[in-house]
Amino acid sequence: MRARDDAPMERRMIAAGRRFFDSSSSLLLLCLLLSLLSANNGIVSAATAPLKFGINYGQIANNLPHPAQVSGLLRSLNVNRVKLYDADPAVLTAFAGTGVEFTISNGDLLNMSDARNARAWVAQNVQPFLPDTRITCVILGNEVLSGTDASAMQSLLPAMQAVHQALVDLGLDDQVNVSTSQSVNVLASSYPPSAGTFREDLAQYMRPLLDFLAELGSPFLINAYPFFAYKASPGSVSLPYVLFEPNPGAHDPGTNLTYDNMLYAQIDAVYAAMEAMGHKDIAVRISETGWPSAGDADEVGATVQNAATYNGNLMKRVAAGQGTPLRPDVPVDVLVFALFNENMKQGQASERNYGLFYPNGTSVYDLGFGGASFGPSSPTASGFSSSSKPTISFPVGVVVLFAAFLL
Ligand SMILES: *[C@@H]1O[C@H](CO)[C@@H](O)[C@H](O)[C@H]1NC(C)=O
Ligand SMILES: *[C@@H]1O[C@H](CO)[C@@H](O)[C@H](O)[C@H]1NC(C)=O
Ligand SMILES: *[C@@H]1O[C@H](CO)[C@@H](O)[C@H](O)[C@H]1NC(C)=O
Ligand SMILES: *[C@@H]1O[C@H](CO)[C@@H](O)[C@H](O)[C@H]1NC(C)=O
Asked: What domains can be seen in the chain, in order of their start residue?
């Protein structure tokens, strides 16, 4: 997928990289060399094991770099799992041959609940990119069940079923999972974790949804932001507890397990809620979590230091393959939100400041990535080189109003 005459482009990118990252130029050069090698061979660099966490690549912004540059950046960081909020063909094309694993999304649930539309969508947005781009999961809807759109709630399961059937019909179901991501707000009770239950008014949707996920062997995906619990009650929620810093922990009298961080308690509350509906057979994964590096004056805790601590500590735990107290043998699986600060997101200032990177490729804070940068990029053969189109994503409601969590 590489044009042959791109050497001058690479030199320009290296020069640009030096400008961005002169403080760590030797590491940067190493990254660039590795990226060059891997790009030229069309394979992923095998120099180091891929990082275990993935990343959300949101695009609600008008100043993001071209996907080919993003591909270089992610390969230099050794990130090999990415989630999109749509099925942007420019991104899927730019990552062809990289080995990066993609979760793509479709929020048009009413439309997808029709078998013909689901089939047409899969034929147009999934099939043509396989196997060069590794699409492994399609997410239908984002936080629909904690929202207010009744039509979307009713269409959620039919849309998942129709998209799954389309994957079966096209012979792709062994490569591509179907799931949905929900906010932790679908829980009526989350503390102690062993007492986790789903909201009673959602049971009519939740029961058949869980039955379907179990039948497919697909995970249940949740978006969980301990930041929101802290922001809502900074006086009663312990900052070390939400940031994975040393703290006495919270004892769950239902299991006698001790929780030293809120994220794991939220995950185990979802396991308990699923078990209360008869399901011990579905894995919980985190489709979004993160911490903003800045916010409005009334958004307590939104600082660079807290964001670096939250994401850095989480990444260490994920790298160690740690499980939750209730599922110690199931490594916590996380997609961090988000890759870039997104300047066109609505809402409070924190919404535009979840990125690990500014749009120019400079990291917002040091996460121990070393000399991260935009790797060498090249126009792809298929002509997405110049357009830097703002991509329309379906609304991402990351607003999680978490019930006050008392230690
Ligand atoms: C990248 O953007 C950030 C935020 O706007 C800015 O502080 C930084 O100086 C920029 N870096 C470069 C190399 O332009
Ligand atoms: C429904 O989905 C199909 C397949 O992707 C698409 O062609 C069509 O435009 C969609 N309809 C609406 C109303 O969005
Ligand atoms: C689908 O999900 C199951 C259960 O989590 C997992 O074992 C499998 O690897 C997934 N398949 C793909 C293609 O991601
Ligand atoms: C928790 O520990 C206490 C004290 O050892 C014991 O009485 C209780 O039965 C235990 N509860 C569970 C659920 O194991």
From this structure: 7-352 (3.20.20.80)
